[in-house]
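Standup notes, protein team

Yesterday: finished cleaning the Saliphagus infecundisoli set.
Today: UPF0173 metal-dependent hydrolase ACFPFO_21060 structure.
Blockers: none.

Input for UPF0173 metal-dependent hydrolase ACFPFO_21060:
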Amino acid sequence: MELTWHGHSTVAVSVGDTRLLIDPFFDNPQTDVEPAEVEEPDYVLLTHGHADHVGSAGAFADATLVAVPELAAYAQEEYGFEEVVGGMGMNLGGTVECGDAYVTMHRADHTNGIETDYEYSAGPPAGFVISDTKPTQVSDDESTTFYHAGDTGLMTEMREVIGPYLEPDAAAIPIGDHFTMGPMQAAIAVDWLDVDHVLPIHYDTFPPIEQDPADFEREVEAAGSDAEVHALSGDEGLEI
């Protein structure tokens, strides 16, 4: 499985021959890539409807959309997506097969209003667990699993459900504070998830979320986690 961070919360994931793009937002200072230069994804996954997560979605409208039904309906109307997973989207707790990948949607503790000419609810915010095998209660040491937490605060589901049952090997965790977890709570999330690798995301995009990832790395160590922190440069990749 290959991961590429394009700044903020935008992560491209390759599983076999399937390419997924999470929260496309290329108007951020960490990336030098224009949407037209990105390898065309098969699936676009949207954690929620805030502008800094869907801002570049229209450039990838030929892909199949994965989102909750309310956000999927909005993205179809606003950005022109024609194909939506399941015909109408998916919802929290569900798992769908996306080419060579299995995508499980989990809750995130955040908000999800869309700023248009009127207040628009986009359903619940979410995170995604992406695996190359279908998740079951039988542990599979051969599978590779990645968790994109979306915009979230610390939640016990990371310790009680996502970590022990969905068993991510790597996670992308927001560290920017102010709108999401900061370094300290993000480090606790890493420990609870029991991952081997972690990518800090959702930081250094705007002044309120400026962070030094070295502070996050120190917090991960203080939490007692053995996870390796990968503070990637924008558009840098990682294979897990």
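Follow-up from PR in the comments: The chain has five helices and 15 strands.
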